[in-house]
Every structure is written in structure tokens, then in C-alpha cells.
Amino acid sequence: MSAPLVEARGVTKNFGNITALDGVDLTLREGEILGLLGDNGSGKSTMVKILVGIHEPNAGEVRIRGEQVDISGPKDARDHGIATVYQDLALVDELSVAENIFLGRMPRKSVAGVVSVIDYDRMREEAERILRERLNIRLDPTTRVEFLSGGERQAVAIARALVTDPDIVIMDEPTSALSADSTARVRDLIRSLRAEGITILIISHDLNEVFELADRITVLDNGNLVGSVDIDEVVEDDVVKMMMSGSMPQETAAESA
What we know:
This protein has about 260 residues and is an alpha/beta fold. Helices cover about 35% and strands about 30% of the residues. It has helices spanning about 45-50, 75-80, 95-100, 120-135, 150-160, 180-195, 205-215, 235-245, 250-255; strands at about 5-15, 20-30, 35, 60-65, 65-70, 80-85, 110, 115-120, 170, 200-205, 215-220, 225-230.
């Protein structure tokens, strides 16, 4: 069993009188794919937003490689090796593939030792290298994103996450609304990231996808941790019962005996 890369311990998050997370623990092991599941309102999004610095917990702590860390913004998350691919991808249709990959981090060069300008040649070369060498995808880096397929757009969003050489990639509904072909391609991309040694947290409503990709599953229910299970120790019905009953499979079986 690999050592914990990320540990959230006793994380609580309140929004006024509403408790979105109530003392939740979450463990992400180095080199694994973890599926985070739960119905709407279970606390999945809140937990992710805490890990990427959008929200700060009211109680609890987050540890990376055993060291307690303060993630008070997305930059802190990036500094700690965490990258995120959001469900809406946050791409700019009017910009090129390369510009989207390096959005907010465009390489620059000095002209005449005085003026700093964007180094478009370097940006295109680096974008093409990331797509080709790390994701095995050939895309013209000068193509505007608006002309890409759903799977190609997802690949661009993943490539943008890789610019910072993260240890952890969080993916929110990575194949939502994609065609069957694009879904298969994106799942292959996820496997290629895992083969590089990148740890992946997937938030998904697609149980088939989670069972195809993940090593373990963690289920939340109404802001509480139901539990975590190894993928080879459960079937889909077990996980559905965890989500519906808020209890572990053996607990559910004991209650019905």
C-alpha cells in the first residue's frame, strides 16, 4: 500500500448555518486514482475547493506528504503540486490551443534588452511538446479552441494542468457530455497520466467510469464521510447502497439481517 500523498483530517466547512462538511477525512495515496462519489449536496465540490484553495476549512487540516499545509488560494495549491481540470474546462474559445494551455503563464522574452513581449514561438513549441509527448495527441497549437471536438478540448484542459508539472491532478466530471469516442480518448489520457506517476482524484457521477479507472472509491453523504473501499472489493451495487444509505456495505448488510 502506497503512502498517503494527501490527507484531509477532520475537515469541517460551514456556510452560515449550513454544514457542507462535518469532520471529513480524505486520503489520497501516491500514484493512485481515487474516485470521489456522492449525490448532489454530499460535499464533494466543497472538499475539492478546500484542496485547491478556493475555500478554507473552519476546522481540520490538510497534509501533503505528512506535512500540514495552508492552502489559502489556487497559487498555494499549485505550489504544493495540485492542478485542477474543472468540469466547464474554463477554456477561451477565441484563443488558440497554445494560448489556452499557457493562459496566465505565457512565456516572455526581452526585445532589445528593454521590452518584454510574449514569446509565441516558444509557447507553441512547448504546447505541442506537452500534447505530443505527454498526452500522445497531435493538435495544431495555433488552432482556435472553438474549432475543437469535446475530447480535444478536454485534452487542452489537461495539458494546461500539466504546465506546472503537478503531482496531483483533480478532475471534475472529466467525460461529462462527451461522445463515446471522446470519452474513450479522455479515459486513455487519464491512464497515461497515472502511468507517469501522477496521482489523480476524479469526481464523477458515472459509476462505470469510476470502476474502469479508479483504484479506490471514497463516498460522501450530506457532508459526512461514508467510507472508502478498494475497487476490487466491491461491485457497483455496493457503492450505490453506500450513496443511498450513508453506510458501508457490511453495515448495510448487518442492518438488513
